[in-house]
Task: inverse folding
């Protein structure tokens, strides 16, 4: 029996009708010479008509057919799936382990934990390698009245494909208690240090809304015309804590996250995550006790296979070294993450011949024109501390100093629900308004992946609290458009970043940045030392 749903959304013919007002489609905020902010909305403007769009999916998959999201900033949450009746494996996702010769894979079944394996190889007709899975299951929220659990997961399988040929196309097929899936293609990570161009998608704050489906659909379309090596999800993944806008409550009136949302999200992204490594980092909606509605990172850990401790980790793909940071726990110098962060950046930077590109990805940005939600002031927001939470001290100077000292090129973020890209910047105000030969990190927020968007109106509400004046470091931002982002590392000195607006095949000019740097990636500190040495030499 074939598992037709593996290409769940891809096989569903779709009709997309985005009915946004024309003025919302030319959105980039322009900055005048005197640094006055040109808001896309006039100050004091009242809430206007909600964005209107219609999504009609016509297909044979009942669970995703008939989606009609026509109200709300991000559309109605799509109907949550009940996957408990599914016979075949589902929620298939790949992930890198940190070795170019390996790829981890997870899938879920309902009926069996035996005879679960993945067969793989270099040719569709020769899937000669086999890896059997280990599996686990979890229960969520016991109902004291009915004496039953609100939710019991399927069997979540994890397997490791080894002996891959770096950079080569491979094929795999899941074998589940005698049934076989479709054969799916993926590319193994290029060998560390190779000069092969590397391409990644990246997105944040997605959920399971109408817009989430549309953005995911756009990424699938891009995958039809381009081979990507992986996907970066900068936290706030499924929003299981707020099913249909509400926090579910148990018999004792305690809130809890709705786990069906995780299953729905897993199915929604399967056409992306089953074909390339889907690398995630937890956001506040996975890790923070309140925002995750008591998941507190436990469900994230059960559903993802990331390297290291799965919250902060690193992995290399060819010429690029990615470092994931968990922004809802301390990264102070004396903290475990802080020490790890310093060590990994030091190690990577000592091997820039191998990894000329160093990319950090995380959930909360430190540079963002949102003055509270983005933590760009370097201070923590009070709502993320409390008697039940470990002390969170915010961003201390070590973090940014380490970014600069070790020549981090790009920092990817989510959390703030808009698109924003900085110039190369350090110390808040030291900005170079050029992407040529960059010396400081460029911070990119791609928090427009599906969840409701924030607006550039100066207010005191914490989600919409923006400064009257646009910070100097802002190069581009957009708050009226959902979308996903892409990074294409052409070679050792040039990378192209682009944000693709939802429903559009090509990126708009204002959403594209070509970033170049000198060969060898001389970090700022070494550059300064070099200048001093030259000056001394000249004086002598
Ligand atoms: Fe967030």
Result:
């Amino acid at each position: 029996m074939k598992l037709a749903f593996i290409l769940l959304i891809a096989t569903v013919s779709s009709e997309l009708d985005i009915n946004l007002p024309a003025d919302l489609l030319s959105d980039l905020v322009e900055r005048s010479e005197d640094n006055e902010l040109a808001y896309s909305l006039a100050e004091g403007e009242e809430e206007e008509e909600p964005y209107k769009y219609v999504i009609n999916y016509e297909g044979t998959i009942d669970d995703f057919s008939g989606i009609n999201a026509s109200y709300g900033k991000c559309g109605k949450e799509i109907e949550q799936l009940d996957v408990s009746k599914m016979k075949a494996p589902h929620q298939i996702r790949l992930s890198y382990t940190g070795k170019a010769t390996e790829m981890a894979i997870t899938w879920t079944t309902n009926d069996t934990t035996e005879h679960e394996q993945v067969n793989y190889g270099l040719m569709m007709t020769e899937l000669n390698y086999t890896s059997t899975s280990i599996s686990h299951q979890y229960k969520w929220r016991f109902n004291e009245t009915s004496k039953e659990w609100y939710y019991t997961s399927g069997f979540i399988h994890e397997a490791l494909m080894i002996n891959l040929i770096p950079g080569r196309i491979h094929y795999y097929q899941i074998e589940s208690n005698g049934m076989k899936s479709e054969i799916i293609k993926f590319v193994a990570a290029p060998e560390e240090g190779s000069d092969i161009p590397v391409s990644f998608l990246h997105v944040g704050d997605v959920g399971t809304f109408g817009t989430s489906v549309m953005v995911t659909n756009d990424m699938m379309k891009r995958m039809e015309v381009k081979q990507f090596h992986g996907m970066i999800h900068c936290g706030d993944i499924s929003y299981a804590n707020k099913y249909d806008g509400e926090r579910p409550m148990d018999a004792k009136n305690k809130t809890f996250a709705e786990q069906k949302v995780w299953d729905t999200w897993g199915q929604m992204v399967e056409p992306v995550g089953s074909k390339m490594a889907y690398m995630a980092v937890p956001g506040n909606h996975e890790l923070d006790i309140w925002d995750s509605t008591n998941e507190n990172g436990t469900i994230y850990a059960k559903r993802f296979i990331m390297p290291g401790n799965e919250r902060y980790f690193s992995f290399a793909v060819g010429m690029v070294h990615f470092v994931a940071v968990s922004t809802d726990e301390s990264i102070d110098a004396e903290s475990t993450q802080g020490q790890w962060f310093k060590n990994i950046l030091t190690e990577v930077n000592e091997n820039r011949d191998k990894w000329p590109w160093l990319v950090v990805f995380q959930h909360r940005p430190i540079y963002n024109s949102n003055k509270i939600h983005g933590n760009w002031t370097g201070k923590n927001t009070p709502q993320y501390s409390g008697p039940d939470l470990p002390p969170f001290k915010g961003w201390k100077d070590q973090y940014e100093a380490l970014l600069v000292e070790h020549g981090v090129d790009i920092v990817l973020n989510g959390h703030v629900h808009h698109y924003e890209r900085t110039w190369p910047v350090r110390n808040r105000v030291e900005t170079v308004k050029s992407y040529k030969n960059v010396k400081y990190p460029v911070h990119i927020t791609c928090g427009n992946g599906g969840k409701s968007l924030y607006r550039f109106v100066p207010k005191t509400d914490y989600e919409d609290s923006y400064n009257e004046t646009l910070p100097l470091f802002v190069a581009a931002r957009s708050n009226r458009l959902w979308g996903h982002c892409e990074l294409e590392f052409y070679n050792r000195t040039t990378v192209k970043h682009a944000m693709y607006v939802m429903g559009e095949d090509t990126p708009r000019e204002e959403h594209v940045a070509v970033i170049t740097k000198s060969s060898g990636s001389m970090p700022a500190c070494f550059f300064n030392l070099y200048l001093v040495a030259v000056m001394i030499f000249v004086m002598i």
About this structure: Helices lie at 210-225, 259-273, 284-287, 298-303, 336-349, 397-405, 524-539.
